[in-house]
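Thread: "does anyone have the structure for this chain?"

Original post by V.I.:
We have the sequence but no experimental structure in hand. Need at least a predicted one for the grant figures.
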Amino acid sequence: MDDWMEFQKYYLSQSKQFQRSKLFVASVLPIVFFIVSFFDYFNNNFDYIELIVFLIISVLWMIFYPKIFYKQCLAKSKKMLGEGDNSAVLGLCNVEFFDDYFFVKTHGGESKVNWSSIKKVGENGKYIFMHMTSISAFIIPKLKIGNQKDEVIKFIKAKTG
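Reply from O.Q.:
Generated one for you, tokens below.
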């Protein structure tokens, strides 16, 4: 499950939609405060202390809420993962690389996957992510590759173009 959560973190860091959502959520409260202050100003109810409080809250919101939003998304992903049986997609597997395909063997079965099925290859410090779609990937822990990780990464990238 840790591998899958690392993929979720990687996915969120790469997702343009998530970045837009995070920006939108971080901007809503400051915009609402601006609108309230704007109407107060034109209705002669303007209060500088209220404005300062709004500004402080807005700045704190814009600094801290994106991190909270990120953690909430990860928590929801983890909770969804806990629902039902996901053993077909989670768990240990063996992967063998060949020139035209790679072979994946899990406790639930075996699959021959053509390199052309891999749409994108990404990596972080601990993992290689071979994307079949934008939201699903084969997750390969670099630690399991050992001292051949540079060669494996080079091979995968050469095969996926």
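V.I.: this helps a lot. The helical segments are 2-14, 16-42, 48-81, 142-145, 149-160.
O.Q.: and The beta strands are 93-97, 101-106, 109-114, 120-123, 127-131, 137-141.
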